[in-house]
Prior knowledge:
The complex is a heterodimer.
Chain A: H1 3-13, H2 20-52, H3 57-105, H4 109-114, H5 117-159, H6 161-208, H7 210-215, H8 219-244, H9 247-272, H10 277-319, E1 339-346, E2 357-364, E3 369-373, H11 380-385, E4 395-400, E5 403-404, H12 410-416, E6 417-420, E7 429-430, H13 431-435, H14 444-453, H15 457-462, E8 470-471, H16 480-493, E9 498-502, H17 510-523, E10 528-532, H18 536-539, E11 544-549, E12 552-557, H19 559-565, H20 567-577, H21 583-587
Helix pairs in contact in A: 1-10, 2-3, 2-5, 2-10, 3-5, 5-6, 5-10, 6-8, 6-9, 6-10, 9-10, 14-16, 19-20
Chain B: H1 7-14, H2 34-46, H3 50-87, H4 94-142, H5 145-150, H6 153-195, H7 197-244, H8 246-251, H9 255-281, H10 283-308, H11 315-357, E1 368-375, E2 378-381, E3 390-395, E4 402-406, E5 411-418, E6 427-434, E7 439-443, H12 450-457, E8 465-470, E9 473-474, H13 480-485, E10 487-490, E11 499-500, H14 501-506, H15 514-523, H16 527-532, E12 540-541, H17 550-564, E13 568-572, H18 580-594, E14 598-602, H19 606-610, E15 614-619, E16 622-627, H20 629-635, H21 638-644
Parallel strand pairs in B: 7-14, 7-15, 10-13, 13-14
Antiparallel strand pairs in B: 1-2, 1-3, 3-4, 5-6, 5-8, 8-9, 11-12, 15-16
Amino acid sequence: MTDRKYIMLKTLLSYVKEYRRASVLTPVCMVGEVIMEMIIPLLMASIIDKGVSTGDLDHIGKVGLVMVAAAGLGLIFGLLGGVLGARASTGFAKNLRKGMFDHIQTFSFANIDRFSVAGLVTRMTTDVTNLQNAYQMILRMCFRAPASLIVAMTMAFIINARLAGIYMIAVLFLGCFLFFIVSRATKYFSRVFEKYDELNASVQENVTGIRVVKAYVREEYENDKFAKAAANLYGMFMRAERIVVMNGPVMTLTVYTCILLISWFGAKMIVAGSLTTGQMMSLLTYCMNILSSLMMLSMIFVMLTMSAASGRRIAEVLNEESTLKNPEAPVTDVRDGSIEFRDVMFSYNKTAERPVLDHVSLSIRSGETIGIIGATGSSKSSLVSLISRLYDVTGGSVLVGGRDVREYDLDTLRRAVSVVLQKNVLFSGTILENLRWGDADASDEDCRAACRTACADEFIERLPDGYETYVEQGGTNFSGGQRQRLCIARALLGRPKILIFDDSTSAVDTATDAKIRRALREDIPDTTKIIIAQRISSVEQADRIIVMDEGRVNGMGTHEELLRTNEIYRDVYESQTGAEADFDAKGGDA
Amino acid sequence: MAEGNQAGKQNVREVRGPGMRGRRGAPLPKLEHPWALFGRIMKYVTKGYLLRCILVAVLIIISVLASVQGTLFTRTLIDRHIMPMLASDNPDFSGLAAAIGRVACFYGLGVLSAFGYQRLLIGITQGTMRRLRVEVFTHMESLPIRFFDTHSHGDIMSVYTNDIDTLRQMISQSIPQMINSCFTVASVFISMVLLNIPLTLLSLLMVGISLFAAGKCTKISGRYFVSQQENLGRVNGFIEEMMNGQKVVKVFCHEQANMREFDELNEALFVSADKAIRFSNVLGPINSQIGNISYVLCAVAGGVLALYGVGGFTLGSLASFLTFNRSFSMPVSQISMQFGSIIMAMAGAERIFRMLDEEPETDNGYVTLVNARVENGTVREAGGEHTGVWAWKHTHQATGETEYKLLEGDVVFDGVDFGYDPEKIVLHDIRMYAKPGQKIAFVGTTGAGKTTITNLINRFYDIQDGKIRYDGINVNKIRKADLRRSLGMVLQETNLFTGTVMENIRFGKLSATDEEVIAAAKLANADGFIRQLPKGYDTVLTANGGNLSQGQRQLLSIARAAVADPPVLILDEATSSIDTRTERIVQEGMDHLMKGRTTFVIAHRLSTVRNSDCIMVLEQGRIIERGTHDELLEQKGRYWQLYTGNAAG
């Protein structure tokens, strides 16, 4: 076993936790069930040889009772195994889900960026279910099948070593054969499934792009393409299945050969007196047991290789180390809302050619209103994300309230620095519940006040259920502008010392935008406010404006100063008032 | 390991694998007309494979008979050969050898037919799957846009990823196994009756008990499976929501609260999953141990019978009977399992057929687009030649006269009413005209009906009332393919296809040469970035151009429209989420494209609006203002409000 696989298994198994006992007992029960099952044919031999052949009715009755007892015990073991197996596997799945969920909560932004949302969801749902099934299979079948093989084989050897030798050869033959088939088939099938995924991906492309297909009248072209791909897949499936199809007949052939050989040599031995009829009958019964467990093993092997990918994907999440750690002896008080960047270098990726932020130095006084403007990709969002330590700098330092952000307790810092993210999200629940994300103890009055500042009160109060209106997942029952205002209100409730708006009024019409800015100025004058915007009108009135360009501060000053001195600023200003302006920006949805 | 945003691919991938589907004990879906449906599936499968299907059934029966014959041989072996030989002083093995030889022949036949039918089945299954996939896909392509707008893409995809797959299992496994099991049960039962009737009754009784117990467990576990499914849905929903909002969770330090809530949901899921699986787990041991008890009882009772030789019951009969007893209970419990998976597959088949039964887009158009030549002021059809001039070939249905009209791009809306649902009209009395080469801009708030109008010109949807005329011809009379070929479309949401950049642009006109494609890319301002791609025009795009930026994808879709070179364009300008530099490039590309073409544009940019020949201000499905930029500003109406940002509320 390679190191990586070992680490993966170790990680996963550490989540068995309180279900360890059930996990250990399940295979024990399964083995118990197998032993009870295997005793029965042996006892049957005794009934025939000592009972029927000699006419000992008493013996038949006695052994019969023992057999019933064995079957009964087998039933109990089987039931227990089923119950414990269910508990162990579902418990394991529960722990895995919890482990992943809790661990993801400790992720930094950098960690989150490394996994796609869809990827994380799949890992926590489908992959966990796959692993749950695999775990149950390991506990129940992985022990049962070899146990059945071994016990039946042992019994066969006890009865007659020479005849059992036939099984030995059969097992070796079938084992090699299955190994050959399985190893070839898995190789083929993984390629087939790859093609299969590709085919489905192309269907998906057609479903989402159907307007394009129809607009260009390309239905037949796509049909031809698909038919070719389907024919290709057909060919690959046929080739793969033709290998697997050997399985059943070869297994049957082996069983039949064993039966005939046992019959022939058994008959000779019986006649020679070295075997009894009953024993031969038991041997014939074991034949099926031995060979079908072998078949079962090969199936388990295939299933496990399939779920190994799920295990790897889960372990990847569990082993991801959070890139942000709380400092030892953290500072739990933020003095004021001043911010300072000292020669800050930053990149998301160590191997990036060009840093995202390149020697940025600036200082912001507590209570100041700062606008940030610059093209997409000029690192505006990156700049502000360092303030609440969503990412760590790669060089230099960021100071909030006169201290390096890395000295603060993370929760303290993030409560003091509130960010209204560009890609903001509302959660399913009432409006009030959503607002209280900002401050769990906020009163209804606090919430209403925050909404007034954010200019959200007007539309909330028009809703039939007002503040109790249910917000659908992702806030889909609100317009973009309404969502943004709710997100601003939510951030206001935390009474932060620094409030950052990352392009958070882009969908709000200009008039309301201005109203919000006025309210902010009046309602929370002492809070440092940083506004990232595309529109000049949103930052025009800020105390100072920072112009970002390709990760550097290109200029900083008031609107008038910048108009005079800064070329980029002037350019943007002219484009927004001139002919290239954005029509919607003027309107927006209200 | 970093992942790209391949949500689509993820979804495709996740549906396969050992999931919950088809688990023993899970409740079965309800079917309305199971027999009719089953008949339809069978008809579909046997189409072209009838002989092979019959052969499969015959071969299955042969293999079952061979196996039964083999079991009966145990009796012959013991009673006819071993016992007499034991009694004789000079045992003769030649008889036994001959008997074994005979059985070996039977067995050989059985193995060969097993191999034969399984091999045949692969061909039947995969052939059917291939036909089904192609038919479903081809049919899907013929469906109207309405179908795609009213069905979730996930549901459509699941037909391909789930339903076709379950159907494959049904054809390749469940049905043959069902035939096998049924025939095994029948022949084993007959053999058992022939061997001994009382013991057969005893075996039957035990099978009955085991079926009864299994039924009980299935019922209980079914209940828990339902609640497990509900809890799973809740947990998955929560996970999805929180993963989507993970950054917000961090910003608000909401981690602890999240963990608590998740714990509760997770625990509820565990409790129901534990119970559901527990009751489905115990099915196995109950079946097999009751089978064992049945075996034991038969062994004891049979032993007594053999001891006294009641009804000619011999030791050999006992040996055979015991083997039959084993092979009786197993297929019986298998039948119920296979029944379950057949029902599941049929539910899937129902969804497949429902899609196949969807009405394809109808097209009664008879006006076609032909290459033309203008000679002495009259338009003539140019035969197979490519003249670069197109004309509508209009054969009047009443008179049979053929008229040619040059394709110019003159579009008129005359009192058009439309609603996606005929009961709910969303566009009212739309009247407008566009002379060839004119640019018409639509402005208005989200939901005003801008996009809807563009859906009507190319007949993605048919209007309820009024008329749309294209070069003076009612669009209803134009063959859809020709109508659409004459209209270019650039949508806000760009859809690219797996393939090279070259292929993606050529999608607009399949016969375009490489030079034409490159010329179109230059026109669209896309040539610059394409040449910077690792393999230039031969760079392969995957996952809807996931390796390109949004602006670059847009440039490609503009180039795609440019290569088609249509006289009329429908544009949906992108809202400005791309960076200013790229946006300027995209805008220039669009401007080049619009030059000289009749253009309907859903405008988001001021320059586009201003340069339009006519601006339509839409509100709640009506054109409330129309005119040029300057005219509308003078009116000081809604447009003026939108323009100056003096929007009320």
